[in-house]
């Protein structure tokens, strides 16, 4: 019975794996096909070609778009991680009147739809003269994120207070305790925050559509939208170009996940048990 259950478990996991991996395998296969064979649903291309990968670099400034996206994602991930960790540490370590009520207000902001603040935020950036630049895509993260504050606070609350009190007796101030003790102990949660925000910023399309005007400032998602508009003329879509660009821009996220998967899995597994 145990062997049968184990076999069934492996079969079920294999089926789920295939279901989740198949779309990317199909996308990868389509990127090596000529236009007429993109939707033939063959995993192994009947006509294998590298022309799409050569052409896509000539049709669009893909390297520039990826550089813009990398700049935005790094700044956004670092900014939101640092600021969210600072706020989360304040809620977890310091005890002051109204702490729980104030934390509840922070969590309540998660229920506010982004569409509600979209126009006011745009007006603020427009008054600052930042529309058309990359700044609005990452600078908003300087104010933290309610979700990441909650995630990091739960991890901080699971840490024993004794090392912090001992450090304070030895003369360490609150900043040293936070930077040298608390953050290193919460490395899995910090890595999870970085990965989550990196993925969110890398795939974000809404804000680039709102703020970016010139193709030299486009990010990858905005550039892919431009490719769809460019190669959709005459009622005949050039899907092979779009598929190839999608593969090129997806690979960095896959590499990033595999590099950080140990911390990612550990952070997800332990965060829920903290506090």
Automatic annotation (TrEMBL):
Keywords: Cell membrane, Membrane, Sugar transport, Transmembrane, Transmembrane helix, Transport. The chain crosses the membrane at residues 7-28, 70-94, 101-125, 137-156, 177-196, 237-259. GO terms for cellular component: plasma membrane. One of its GO terms (biological process) is transmembrane transport. It is a multi-pass membrane protein. PROSITE patterns: ABC_TM1. Pfam families: BPD_transp_1. It is found in: Cell membrane. The keyword Ribosomal protein does not apply. Residues 66-260 form the ABC transmembrane type-1 domain. InterPro entries: MetI-like, MetI-like_sf. Belongs to the binding-protein-dependent transport system permease family. This is Multiple sugar transport system permease protein. The lineage of its organism: Bacteria, Bacillati, Actinomycetota, Actinomycetes, Streptosporangiales.
């Amino acid at each position: 019975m145990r062997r049968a259950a184990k076999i069934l478990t492996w079969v079920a996991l294999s089926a789920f794996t295939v279901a989740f991996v198949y779309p990317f395998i199909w996308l990868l296969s389509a990127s090596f096909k000529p236009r007429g064979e993109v939707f033939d649903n063959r995993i192994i291309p009947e006509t294998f070609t590298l022309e799409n990968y050569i052409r896509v670099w000539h049709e669009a400034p893909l390297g520039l778009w990826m550089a813009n996206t990398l700049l935005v994602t790094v700044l956004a991930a670092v900014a939101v991680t640092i600021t969210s960790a600072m706020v989360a540490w304040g809620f977890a370590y310091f005890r002051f009147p109204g702490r729980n009520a104030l934390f509840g207000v922070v969590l309540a902001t998660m229920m506010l739809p982004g569409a509600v603040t979209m126009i006011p935020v745009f007006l603020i950036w427009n008054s600052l003269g930042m529309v058309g630049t990359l700044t609005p895509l990452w600078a908003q993260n300087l104010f933290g994120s309610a979700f990441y504050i909650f995630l990091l606070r739960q991890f901080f609350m699971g840490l024993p207070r004794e090392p912090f009190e001992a450090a304070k007796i030895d003369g360490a101030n609150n900043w040293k305790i936070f930077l040298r003790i608390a953050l290193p102990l919460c490395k899995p949660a910090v890595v999870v925050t970085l990965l989550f925000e990196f993925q969110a910023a890398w795939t974000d399309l809404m804000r680039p559509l709102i703020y970016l005007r010139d193709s030299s400032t486009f990010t990858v998602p905005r550039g892919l939208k431009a490719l769809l508009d460019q190669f959709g003329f005459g009622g005949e879509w050039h899907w092979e170009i779009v598929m190839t660009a999608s593969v090129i821009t997806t690979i960095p996220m896959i590499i990033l996940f595999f590099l950080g998967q140990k911390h990612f899995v550990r952070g997800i597994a332990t965060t829920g048990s903290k506090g």
